[in-house]
Design brief:
The complex is a heterotrimer of chains A (about 140), B (about 400) and C (about 250). By secondary structure, chain B is mainly alpha-helical. Chain B is built from 14 helices and 3 strands. The longest helix of chain B is centred in the middle third of the chain and has 31 residues. The chains are: A mainly alpha (about 140), B mainly alpha (about 400), C alpha+beta (about 250).
Chain lengths: ~140, ~400, ~250
């Protein structure tokens, strides 16, 4: 429901304001992500990011498809910033990528009640270094004769 | 026979407003209790990963079961053509709707994600009896609403019997579904029993009739309406039969369980060594909730006393809550048997009797559900003519069935 | 659909070929009889899980050390399960159970986790279908549609599930979890999809106990299938006919 509401209201914003924004209309200014270009054109992402995420979520959850293009974890890789101590700032913190537009549009996110808001980083006080998936040697699961 | 005249509650008296305010306050407290649980998470309640259904489920299941039974009086009049009960059919149907709504609200507010109710309405797994129950509960509300309309609208009176019959069948299916929630749980020693569904049906007849009697007496006495003892005596006899039947089914349930040696552990737990559950079972369910009411209902001394009848009904309600408590929480308190013949221990309480203490928010939510049911009834009686102006007085019933049928509506 | 199937079939063929070629290469480079690791090829990220596979596990209770909790610790680390200091409501995906035979006094120690049943009671009772069995046999909770009714916890014969009793923050990216939903062992599906073993199995091997073997029960050549053939093993609560994916030896 919230996802639908988000898509709707963002679509509304795009249709009415964003594309033909008057100069005096205050616009949200989310921080720039890494790299030149997001996985889809910016206006498509603005409008459809929840559609991509919801689709990917069902594909991953129920069918085990783990492509990276529309994966929320990958979003975090580019769209989280670090503070002066070099620790990631949560993507839903004030002024950070997701929150800026969602504040502006007044659409509440509930993704981050469950999902991580930063890439994996060691907890303060934890000695364990961050685990990069696939970095350590492990037994392979399937055996070919 | 004179036509039955229905009249709304005047709703002007101080007593009415006090009652309304008290019920509304309890509903509000119940809502805030649920809100508190939702904001903090369920760790603020008595539930845990061992006792996953707690006090709210006791109240919710009790109310849902009683809702089906509250329809008794209406069914007896419409389906079985007993015209003495006809004037009470509207009240009976109203109470069944109100109790069901109260129970469902408690159930929903105790969900981990109550705000996702829409998900429960849009995603279905039809292998789940729970999913079926969502249809059964909502359908029941619809069926009884139509039934009420048939009763209220004079032009529709002729369909009353058909609508009543549909509602009658529906409520049996509904209670079968509610009982099956437990009957289908093969994993738990106390549940895996086909008798759960019929047991729940009998329980519904007993609890529903007791609540109906209480509301009936209160509504008539508080509004100064004449109430004939004749109808009360009939309802009293019905209640006595239902309470006896619950007692008999409870006996049958425990005897069947005792027949299977592997279930001796859980039976020994509930009947002998379960501490609070054994106490609740023997003291509240059996003695206070069944034996004492039966003695009152069958006693020649008390059977003519309206006070005694009210006391017996209250005891049946308390006994009913106790019974559901033992069924839901007692059964979870007994540990799952993973390795028969072994002593099990772990950090996850394997092999240990699980303790559960009801927390204030859970109890307040449950009471809020009961209050909501009564609030709905009290407001509805104010708005629409559910109550007859008087009951009895005329030599009623069998001599002029057609006239009564036409008049009662 | 057809073209998709055809495509994935081609892919599989191609992979099988590469796999054999790779295996041959490995045989050539290593001394006879020595294989560093079992050689396999990951399912590509864009290919769905397959019903040709059924993931399963063998617990060898004779090798499981009393008092050792490496598997539990690894699981807690992998999923970010930090206790709140409330044992009755803290989540446990895998736990160690200590057993003592009432007659002989013999003691056993073994891990208990979601048994990934073929006919899982939790899947049957879930009203919304949030509790489901993936086509390759892994039983999961889709927390997006879990309403937190806890009927699955009532139905599970193994007490394998936990309910999130409080607000959480700082979740692990690969293991989303949040208040009001039910969760349990996922067989580390996020690792399995990338061809890695579950964290508990890895930890047990790292400690040198080798009490846990994970693999494809449908593949007669998998290490798991070989061990299941060699060692007498049983299902817990076999009387319920659940055809569990986790089997136990030595208890």
């Amino acid at each position: 429901m919230r996802a639908a509401a988000a898509v709707l209201s963002l679509a509304l914003i795009c249709a009415t304001g964003w594309t033909a924004a008057a100069a005096d209309t205050p616009m949200p200014k989310p921080p720039r992500g890494k790299g030149e270009q997001c996985v889809e054109p910016t206006d498509v992402m603005r409008r459809d990011h929840m559609r991509f995420l919801t689709h990917q979520r069902d594909e991953t959850m129920h069918r085990g498809i783990r492509t990276k293009k529309h994966s929320l974890i990958e979003c975090l890789e580019c769209h989280t910033r670090k503070d002066v101590q070099g620790r990631f700032l949560p993507v839903n913190a004030e002024g950070e990528f997701c929150q800026v537009c969602h504040d502006y549009s007044g659409v509440k996110m509930d993704c981050f009640e469950c999902h991580a808001t930063t890439p994996r980083q060691p907890k303060p006080g934890s000695a364990r270094s961050s685990a990069e998936p696939g970095s350590d040697i492990s037994f392979r699961l399937r055996i070919t004769p | 026979m004179k036509p039955v005249r229905y009249q709304t509650l005047a709703g002007q008296s101080g007593g009415y407003w006090v009652l309304l305010a008290a019920l509304a306050a309890l509903v509000a407290i119940g809502y805030f209790a649920a809100h508190y649980m939702e904001v903090h998470g369920h760790y603020v309640t008595g539930m845990s990963n061992q006792i996953v259904w707690g006090t709210p489920h006791v109240f919710a299941v009790f109310l849902i079961v009683a809702a089906s039974g509250a329809l008794n009086t209406a069914s007896i009049s419409s389906v079985f053509g007993k015209n003495d009960y006809k004037p009470l059919a509207r009240l009976s149907a109203l109470l069944s709707v109100a109790l069901l709504v109260g129970g469902l609200i408690v159930l929903v507010l105790d969900l981990g994600r109550p705000e996702r109710l829409i998900v429960a309405m849009t995603y279905y797994n039809f292998k789940s009896i729970f999913a079926w129950n969502i249809f059964l509960y909502i359908g029941f509300l619809g069926v009884v609403a139509v039934y009420l309309w048939m009763m209220f609208e004079p032009r529709m009176n002729k369909f009353g019997k058909t609508a009543g019959t549909v509602a009658f069948i529906w409520r049996f299916v509904l209670t079968t579904g509610t009982g099956s929630i437990f009957g289908f749980l093969v994993a738990r020693q106390a549940y895996d029993a086909a008798i759960m569904a019929p047991l729940f049906i009998i329980m519904s007849l007993s609890f529903g009739t007791a609540i109906f009697l209480l509301v009936l007496v209160a509504a008539f006495e508080w509004t100064g309406r004449p109430l004939d003892d004749d109808i009360l005596r009939r309802l009293k006899n019905l209640l006595a039969i239902f309470v006896s039947a619950v007692l008999y089914m409870t006996l049958a349930y425990h005897l069947t369980n005792l027949y299977a040696t592997e279930h001796h552990g859980v039976e020994r737990f509930i009947l002998l060594e379960g501490g609070v559950y054994t106490t609740v079972f023997w003291l509240f369910q059996i003695i206070l909730g069944s034996i004492v009411p039966l003695m009152i209902l069958f006693s020649p001394t008390f059977s003519r006393s309206r006070r005694a009848l009210v006391a017996a009904s209250i005891l049946v309600v308390i006994g009913g809550l106790a019974q559901v408590y033992v069924i839901i929480i007692g059964a979870q308190a007994f540990p799952l048997v993973l390795f028969p013949g072994m002593e099990e221990s772990s950090t996850f309480f394997d092999g240990a009797v699980n303790d559960y203490t009801p927390s204030a928010p859970e109890i307040l939510l449950g009471i809020g559900g009961i209050a909501l049911a009564l609030l709905i009834a009290v407001v509805a009686m104010r708005v629409l003519p559910f109550l007859p102006e008087r009951l009895g007085e005329q030599p009623s019933g069998t001599s002029e069935p057609e006239a009564a049928e036409a008049a009662a509506g | 659909m057809q073209s998709r199937n055809a495509k994935s079939k081609t892919n599989r063929k191609r992979r099988e070929f590469i796999g054999r070629a790779g295996a041959a290469a490995a045989m050539l480079t290593l001394a006879p009889g020595v294989r560093l690791v079992d050689l396999a090829l990951a399912r590509p990220a864009d290919e769905p899980a397959s019903d040709k596979v059924r993931w399963g596990m063998l617990v060898d209770a004779t090798k499981c050390a009393q008092g050792c909790t490496e598997c539990v610790d690894a699981c807690n680390e992998e999923f970010g399960l930090e206790g709140m200091g409330r044992p009755k409501t803290d989540a446990q995906y895998i736990r160690k159970i200590d057993l003592k035979d009432k007659t002989t006094g013999k003691r056993y120690s073994l891990p208990m986790l979601c048994q990934h049943c073929e006919t899982a009671p939790c899947v049957d009772v879930c009203p919304t279908g949030a509790s489901f069995r993936r086509i390759d046999g892994i039983v999961l909770v889709d927390k997006h549609i879990c309403i937190g009714c806890r009927y699955c916890m009532m139905a599970c014969p193994f007490k394998a599930r936990s309910f999130v009793h409080e607000n959480l923050t700082d979740q692990v990216p690969e293991a989303p979890r949040g208040k009001g939903t039910v969760e349990s062992c996922t067989f580390c599906v996020h690792r399995v999809d990338r061809d890695r073993e579950p964290a508990c199995v890895e930890a047990c091997s790292r400690e040198g106990h080798e009490a846990l073997t994970f693999g494809d029960m449908n593949d007669p050549n998998s290490r798991l299938s070989q061990r299941l053939r060699e060692l007498p093993n049983r299902q817990i609560r076999a009387d319920l006919g659940l055809n569990t994916g986790v089997r136990y030896h030595g208890v």
